[in-house]
Amino acid sequence: MDESDHRVIGNRLDLFHQQEEAPGMAFWHPRGYALYAVVEGYIRKRMREADYREVRTPLLLARSLWEASGHWERFGAQMFSLVDGERDFALKPMSCPAHVQIFNGRVRSFRELPLRLAEFGACHRNEPSGALLGLLRGRAFVQDDAHVFCTEAQIAGEVVRFCALLRRVYADFGFDEIRVGFSTRPAERAGDEGLWDRAEALLAEAARDAGLDLIAQPGEGAFYGPKLEFALRDDRGRLWQCGTIQLDLVLPDRLGAAYVDAENRHLRPAILHHAVLGSIERFIGLLLEHYEGRLPLWLAPEQLALCTIGEGQEPYAERVASLLSSEGYRVALDLRPERLSRKILDARAQEIPLLLALGRREAATETVSLRRRDGDRESLPLAAVADALRAEAFR
Which of these is catalytic: 147, 189, 330, 343? Predict the structure, then answer.
């Protein structure tokens, strides 16, 4: 297995593992879950800023709902199901029917639209064992799932908003090159030809408004609507399909979603299904391979290795660690009675971006010795460390 494979990196950095008792699923170790939490927290912040309201829906839903939505007919073989007495249930492979239930929970006015719902939806899909590939393709994963309920007149504006959000997020993660595919009606689909003509025209117009250059992907759409698929090019030139936005004029009718317009008519909303990262697990796998484990400071599971030099510096080191932890930094405190060279090697092996060395001189002068990955060093007064580290994230 290639040393840049995310599974090798995950093992080397003690991030996660997989085993036969949970095929296609990850056991996240403390360092790995710290990374996971950073990625999830970042997306949660961006979605909140973009006026999405976070929800949580059940993992297990009755088969009758999946039949009504059309998912059972097309994806039933990939769904984990069980029987409870006389009723069949299934673990959700996606969140869209559940979000429609929230929309349908009361009468909706046109004044509430667009309504933007977001969820870190835990999904399960019974993928063939031969197709499983670490974090990149699994049977259990979490999607940064969102659904926008809107009028047809609002579709273009919502697509433009989403594309702006997506570009900002990808740039923050270090990806500037984005390829956009336009996936149109598949052979097996719901809805008549007139509905598909309208949906494809609306999404193509919205993509033009967003300034996208589209690559045609005939027949690759979802069964309920066309979609835009966003692929990122990594540091090794490979393309990774991540974000997607799908226009759905089918599911609102199948599940009875409606809003009341200004003339008191009950109309069907359009639904935009979208995700920025797709699967959080898969995106982390992408990040590990893109950076070959050397994650930037803001993403690193442990940002700072705080290492003592010699004996007697433990109280000062613990005070510095407490100060930096209170500022939100993820600190690995190394008080072992080892030589500094050994501690540096261990920190570098764990790909910790920064190292702070604390010896007798630093304790006496209330300073720290900062060492970077590139070998650069500088001495900083303790009072200035937190501000200096904030600037460090943008080096």
Answer: 147
Here the tokens at position 274 are 């979208």
Active-site residue, 125 included: yes
Position 395 scores a pLDDT of: 42
Task: Name the residue among 281, 279, 284 with its Cα closest to residue 143.
Answer: 279
In the residue annotation, 147 being an active-site residue is answered as yes
Q: Which of 7, 143, 189, 330 is catalytic?
A: 143
Annotated active-site residue 227? The verdict is: yes
pLDDT in tens, 114-163: 999 999 999 999 999 889 999 999 999 999 999 999 999 999 999 999 99
Domain residue limits, the chain = 6-291, 304-392
Does the active-site annotation cover 145?
A: yes
Confidence (pTM): 0.94
| Catalytic option among 46, 92, 96, 371 | 96
Indicate the average pLDDT of the chain: 93
CA distances in angstroms from 318 to 86, 321, 326, 361, 382, listed in the order given: 60, 5, 12, 16, 13
The highest-level CATH class for domain 304-392 is alpha beta
CATH superfamily, domain 6-291, is Bira Bifunctional Protein; Domain 2 (3.30.930.10)
